[in-house]
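Researcher: Here's the sequence for the chain we discussed earlier.
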Amino acid sequence: MDTELYINNLLGAFATTLSSAIDENVGGVGLRSGSAATALVTVFNHPNESIDVLRRILNVTHSGAVRLINGLETEGLVERKPSAQDRRAVVLRLTKNGDTRAKAVLAARENVTTRIVENLSAEQREALLPVLATMLQTLTGDQSSARRNCRLCNEGVCRPNGCPVEQAVT
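Model: Thanks. This is the structure I predict for it:
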């Protein structure tokens, strides 16, 4: 048996299945798209950032990001505020309803990952931590990729524990 090929195949199947399950669960939150969910979580994690920062994280055009924010603003989930640093620019913040929806997206994602992790023994969980950290660091090349990699993360969980993605770019 080719162990490396087998691991690669299992990892690919796991990644695809996990991604689909998260997409399905997040879709149940009732937002109009996965991009809307990602945008809400991004603004939740990084309030007072510009539309351009959001555009780079979502990997969309500027006009696509503006349309997305326009829709979220119309739905009462996001608001634009003048930037404290540049009066010509605006920054994004969540409304109270947007904050609630962002937390619902994070909870939907966590429901999927919890189902997986709860089936592991304590020893397996401890062994998995450094493996996941190394895998995430391998996929993180710069600050932009770090933000993209964590676009649906609850950054309040990782930061106190030492986020491996942020460590990869510092």
